[in-house]
Amino acid sequence: MQEGSVLQGDTPPVRFDVQGARGGVSIALIATLRRDLTLMLRHRGEVLNPLVFFALVITLFPIGISPDPVLLTRIAPGLLWVAALLAALLSLDSLFRSDFDDGSLEQLLLAPQPLAALSLAKVAVHWLLTGLPLALMAPLLGIMLSLPAGSYAILSLSLALGSASLSLIGAIGAALTVGLARGGVLLSLLVLPLYIPVLIFGAGAVQAAIMGDGAGAHLAILGALLAASLALSPWAIAASLRISING
Amino acid sequence: MWAFIHKLGSPKWFYAISAKLQPWCWAVAALLIVAGTVWGLAFAPADYQQGNSFRIIYIHVPAAFLAQSAFISMASAGLVFMVWKIKVADMAATVMAPFGAAMTFVALFSGAVWGVPTWGTWWMWDARLTSMLILLFLYLGVIALRGAFSSRDSGSRAASVLAMVGVINIPIIKYSVDWWYTLHQPATFSVTSTPSMPMTMWLPLLVMVLGFYSFFIALTLMRTRSEILRREGSKRWVRELFQEAR
């Protein structure tokens, strides 16, 4: 690394190219994406844990309620969505935690590029490694809950769309609580009420697909929610991160 | 006009001005609430469908109004605090949160009590009840977040951000819950489907709503004043004030 050469006395100090450090937002975005992906893929356990949690919670429901396939068919869309939502929520606490602990979050704040864009890259990685795998895994658990055929694609699609909004909204809560020693329970208290619209339209899409009505309207609203949270939440995340770092 | 607003932003001036306003607000609130209660409970005619049980509306509706207004005021105060760093705004937001949560609880509780004679059950997953319950959770989140920070300034700013995020979400939550309700359950009973209220029932309700709003303003003024004293206790003007009083 270049910092090494700064410390050596005999070589002339490296001149940091200020213009280069100001490099485009896209360069910073790609660097953040690559760094976070590498970090997450080196901790495979953290990526797998939400998926195992999802499967476990789904296992609990037939045991706790009834193994009757007719009943399970009726409640399957809601169960799958609630369990996936909780799994995504569980992984949120670690979104900024390790960066906060080792100080790299402060470097993100100091970077000349807008913090909103950089935090958006972090959220995108979170969705890629939590929301998307959950969406891909959901049909498998749907089979176990005897979800009617014909709704599997909609289930995956609605979860993929919806979990992106969940990651974005949840990141606001994660950014607000990252400076607190025990922010985990508080995080769910802050974030769960804001998740309700996504849950309604996500589970509604699957329900509509089962009933044979078009799920298009629900998916369109999920997309609208995603567009709105994509436009608004990066600013809230950035503001919250600044509060957490200074506090 | 602007000079007045700037003065209002200083705790000292706010303390002095609110001292003059406060008794009037309390007087108006007490007058309106007493008048509305007596009018609504004793003189308004009984509902032809619900009998006397409808009279709970004179508590329920004003409380529900205030539950939402208090959240919006709290978020606006938070915005003012975040943008202009006016401390008084944050003090007002601090004292509005528990009041709003209490009003939400009153609206939920009176709704549950009202549900027994009209719906035959304490709780129904009605769209309005559900969104009110979610509002209560939002209030509790803001209060909990403010309390969780050890530094008061960080807690204030975090609570302001959360209140603003919440206020953007409230209409989304409300409409999505409405949609969900129409999808899942046909409306069995609805308070709104009763024919529009006659004037004799509606006027006391208006008086009660205005009375609750004056109560909100008076209580916010009073509690903001004590919050000012609590936070500015080490300032000279507060000390001088208490030396004079002694």
In short:
The complex is a heterodimer of chains A (247) and B (246). Chain A has 247 residues and is mainly alpha-helical. In chain A, 81% of the residues lie in helices and 0% in strands.
Taken in chain order, the helices and strands of chain B follow as HHHHHHHH
Based on Cα principal axes, name the global outline of chain A.
elongated
* Total helical segments of chain A: 11
**How many distinct beta strands of chain B?**
0
Beta-strand portion of chain A reads under 5%
Order of helices and strands of chain A: HHHHHHHHHHH
- SS strand fraction of chain B: under 5%
Largest interface summary: A-B, 29 and 30 residues
Structural classification of chain B: mainly alpha
Largest sheet of chain A: none
- Quaternary arrangement of the chains shown? heterodimer
Class from helix and strand fractions of chain A: mainly alpha
Query: How many structural units, i.e. domains of chain A?
Result: 1
**Poorly predicted residue ranges of chain B:** 186-190
Determine Rg of chain B (CA atoms, Å). 21 Å
Number of helices of chain B: 8
Helix content of chain A: over 70%
Mean pLDDT of chain A: 87
Main beta-sheet annotation of chain B: none
Organism (chain B): Vreelandella subglaciescola
Main location (chain B): membrane
Keywords (chain B): Cell inner membrane, Cell membrane, Cytochrome c-type biogenesis, Membrane, Transmembrane, Transmembrane helix, Transport
Protein name (chain B): Heme exporter protein C
